[in-house]
Amino acid sequence: MKLYCLSGHPTLPCNVLKFKSTTIMLDCGLDTTSVLQFLPLPLVHSPRLSKLPGWVSKDGTINLEKVQDPTLLNVFFIELLDLSTIDVILISNYHCMMALPYITEHTGFTGSVYATEPTLQIGRLLMEELVNFMERVPKAQSATCWKNKEIQRVLPGPLKDAVEVLTWKTCYSIQDVNSALSKVQLVGYSQKVELFGAVQVTPLSSGYSLGSSNWIIQSHYEKVSYVSGSSLLTTHPQPMDQSSLKNSDVLILTGLTQMPTANPDGMLGDFCSNLAMTIRAGGNVLVPCYSSGVIYDLLECLYQFIENANLGSTPFYFLSPVANSSLEFSQIFAEWLCHNKQSKVYLPEPPFPHAELIQTNKLKHYPSIHGDFSTDFRQPCVVFTGHPSLRFGDVVHFMELWGKSSLNTIIFTEPDFSYLDALAPYQPLSMKCVYCPIDTRLNFHQVSKLLKEVQPLHVVCPEQYTQPPPSQSHRSDLMLELQPPPMPYRRCSVLGLPFRRRYERIHLLPELAKSLVPSEIKPGVSLATVSAVLQSKDNKHTLQPVPKPLPLPPSKKRKRVVEEPPEVLAPKPLLSGSVPLEAFLAVLHKHGITEVKVEETADGHILHLQAEDTLIQLEEDGTHIVCDNNEPLRTTLRDLVLRFLMKL
Amino acid sequence: MPEIKVTPLGAGQDVGRSCILVSIGGKNIMLDCGMHMGYNDDRRFPDFSYITQQGRLTEFLDCVIISHFHLDHCGALPYMSEMVGYDGPIYMTHPTKAICPILLEDFRKITVDKKGETNFFTSQMIKDCMKKVIPLNLHQTVQVDDELEIKAYYAGHVLGAAMVQIKVGSESVVYTGDYNMTPDRHLGAAWIDKCRPDILISESTYATTIRDSKRCRERDFLKKVHETVERGGKVLIPVFALGRAQELCILLETFWERMNMKAPIYFSTGLTEKANHYYKLFITWTNQKIRKTFVQRNMFEFKHIKAFDRSYIDNPGPMVVFATPGMLHAGLSLQIFRKWAGNEKNMIIMPGYCVQGTIGHKILNGQKKLELENRQTVIPEYEPGWSLEVKLQVEYMSFSAHADAKGIMQLIRMAEPRNMLLVHGEAKKMEFLKDKIEQEFSINCFMPANGETSTVATNPSVPVDISLNLLKREMALGGPLPDPKKPRTIWRASLRLVSPEQALKELGLSEHQLRFTCRVQLQDAHSDSDTHIRIYTHLKSVLKGYTIQHLPDGTVMVESIVIKVSSSPEEPNTKVLLLSWSYQDEDLGSFLSTLLKKGLPAALSSM
């Protein structure tokens, strides 16, 4: 059993597990942090951005056009393995499937993808949004010369160190998205899915987002748990199923919180108070966020907050090409929600209170800043919009619009991007910046408790989790400490998982089972010989009774009774024990065989029955009877020898 | 030999009060717990005293599963759990869990508040009963206990309707509840995988019907409604609040829109809006098309259909009214019917099945004069001696989403059951379908009456752990002929299949080899190597079905028996055959030595 690690990003994992000759890809996250290296893509012409000079190297020999093209995404699957050999892809949540089209399209991939319904639907929305963001702005130029190794070498900062920039790809098309998602097969929590009869995979609720799942990959004897993006906090999704992770041989642990020191509840409090402060002062609030996930919790929190804080008249805008769909979809997945929200549906009421916010016109949603929004727009207001990298989407427009006023505030809630890097191209900036990253995924304290509870034999995790974060190297509590220590992986690692498969499940047909006659060899241990035909079909093994040979057609005239060969019957029992010389001689004597010459050899004795001209070689673990032309004698001797042996 | 037993307490050769007991692998499961619409007395509920004469049912049942929210499938649930007594788990899907208590409360109100019955379950009992419900998701494998697992499949009959697979070890039963194999305007078609259950328990409401295409029926329906409205008549469509009603509403809504019709359409109960809300929130349970477009246009927001008020009954002019309940056995639909029955301009369209004893059933059978015949007939609110002339047009349109004969056969093909068991249908029709199933699929088909038990013997295979090395070795062998092998099993807490060598090793025993060697003299005027070939050819012709090899060093091998030829230079024609075999091949060895003693037939060609 092997694990191929294609991504080094701990929260956007992409691993491939080879288990019982099936090749299973676990997640395919898309690392979009690469877009931070580029200038933002504005929705409307930005004189500021277009006036920026190009980049000139220190010695002035290289002159690059500025790159206003954040459409290159870090697609990390290198040639570690042939993507067309992948049998299935298991998706754990909608953030971890954004690279799916790169794998399933134009690669010869013929397998299938398993995901829950909310994961598929919301994942589709996020992909459509990404494509929309990238495609709706006509690109001025597509710079590629920086990718040249010679030039890249002298570039500043992270670009210089970026690896495999040639594999950075432009965004996929909507056709690719549709085609990729058509390969998804829907599964429900605790549904047992058989893969080729060899492996069973089961999604379990992971508590992180709508439809998010951890996966169990198991055979009858081995169990691998794949934990990715799980949460123990009570937010909107169904709580995490922990007990089903018990008794794992290997637990692959990814997707822990990216903000181990930030408490989500505290952050949510900061978020509300900063928001209220800004509005009261007459400023606007910009919240760069994804169109699904934490935004539901933010809206729910605000629903309770705005009445108390006297913000009832402040307009809340949610701008995204998929804003409406995201809000609508969130209401129809009752089965995937926490208990509280489920019981609301029974009333019947929409599970999320944002329905009421929309109904009372407090929350309005628009596909983009164009169209209706421009007429409805009132300030001061709160705007939720993407993309959290601040490089594309409607958020770019609001940065240009509000950045210069210190009355306004931008509140970062998504933990995926460094807010300083995200803001870099907008500097100098007067607007206030508040960083309230809300990451509900497991922290190190929770995970060590969880692991104590479920007790896997081995833990595999990204190497980042085996040491404290570089910025807080003294915090030994911000790492995994386990006994035995976890097996770390990094990008491009291939790990052999410590597994020895020893048994396989086989079925005895009832007729065969009935024919077995076990005999007790030792107390509590019985034995029976099984003689059967093995049938292996779809990786399922069955033992069937040996078919009886067809009775020969009655032979006419020819009487060949003697020449009829013996049928293939049940085999002879296995013999065990040894034949003691003295006792054997005594028995021979009893049967009238008296002239026996005994000769000692290295391993035993040779008995020469002189009258019968027959040799019997007696050894500790074998007896050899050499007897010519005397079938009756041979059979007698055989039976005498058998008397001393144990038949199994 | 293990058995599965199935006993219907209700719905055995009957429609109504579905309640089926299944015993499988030592577990007892109750499937559905319904009431009978046609009765007003004890026969209304299944006879739970079959399970136990006294005391609670908890210790006799491992779980109860409800397939969908129709009262003939869940109407007796609070009675069973709260009045007879059952505290174990009750499983149903989310939509069923949401809607079922509302219908139960409705039913209770009609029975207790209107008919004044006492000794009936209370609102609190419904609440307490629902607390015992564990929601089921589609395709989720729910472990009821260590051995019993259940799994729900989409049934397409009403919102949230499910078929369930019940599995203990390798034995399994599938219960369909009510299902529909053709997608309609708001629901998808039932689907199940090839799970090969030991018994498939199927409803058979439309056992003998093969319905024409849905489109035809819809056109027919719209035409009739249209005609009646055009001539100024009123159309009454008795429905249940949830289910068919929504489908017909979608149908009329689009028709009204297209034809720009003005006549009002009403939906009778306060449930309407609420019901439609359920459909909106459980949109994932509707069909593909509605699910795909719900963000743009929610099919359950109706423009033309408005709430009905009792005072509208006597309004002049045409109108279309959907009124509950669907079988005209009580409530508003019956009240409206009574008012409108006398006018031949009006029309009643019965879109679903009506059980025996209801007024719906009677008028469908062409009865033109209705009277209160006896006390068992459920006609509440009307004094004895009541009678009514039926003049309005009565139309029956099968819109109820049950599988027809074709659909039932289709499901059998999907699931490939080993046995079939029919419930929820009329005996005569079942008989017909039973013959058809037995003919077409050559499987047994049962149709037990209420209280009658059908028993099916199962033949589960025995799971064993086989050592991987042994398995790989055996699989590598896989020759053209079945190869009888001699591994052994060790019985411990579990069964293990290991190779003989490993078994002996584990037991601390040593194997004892017993070998025999035998010399046979033979006259054969050929060279040694030719004799080898002659022996080989001879044995080939005598021993069919054995592996016979002619090895490169000249020896002949039959299975593991070695035959070697030698001769002395003095007597080249006298061959000495050396046969050597182990005890495992004793029978064959003995046979060969006797056979070869007789010499080789002269006629053997040397090649």
TrEMBL record, chain A:
It is found in: Cytoplasm; Nucleus. One of its GO terms (cellular component) is INTAC complex. The keyword Nucleus applies. Residues 538-558 are annotated as: Disordered. One of its GO terms (biological process) is RNA polymerase II transcription initiation surveillance. Residues 295-423 form the Beta-Casp domain. Its main location: cytoplasm. Belongs to the metallo-beta-lactamase superfamily. RNA-metabolizing metallo-beta-lactamase-like family. INTS9 subfamily. This is Integrator complex subunit 9. The gene is INTS9.
UniProtKB/TrEMBL annotation, chain B:
CDD domains: INTS11-like_MBL-fold. It comes from Esox lucius (Northern pike). Transmembrane segments: none annotated. GO terms for molecular function: hydrolase activity; metal ion binding; RNA endonuclease activity. Its main location: cytoplasm. Belongs to the metallo-beta-lactamase superfamily. RNA-metabolizing metallo-beta-lactamase-like family. INTS11 subfamily. This is Integrator complex subunit 11. Its cofactor is Zn(2+). One of its GO terms (biological process) is snRNA processing. Keywords: Cytoplasm, Hydrolase, Metal-binding, Nucleus, Zinc. Residues 16-233 form the Metallo-beta-lactamase domain. Residues 245-363 form the Beta-Casp domain. Pfam families: Beta-Casp (PF10996), IntS11_C (PF21386), Lactamase_B_6 (PF16661), RMMBL (PF07521). The keyword Methyltransferase does not apply. It comes from the Eukaryota. GO terms for cellular component: cytoplasm; nucleus. InterPro entries: Beta_Casp, INTS11-like_MBL-fold, IntS11_C, MBL, Metallo-B-lactamas, RibonucZ/Hydroxyglut_hydro, RMMBL. It is found in: Cytoplasm; Nucleus.
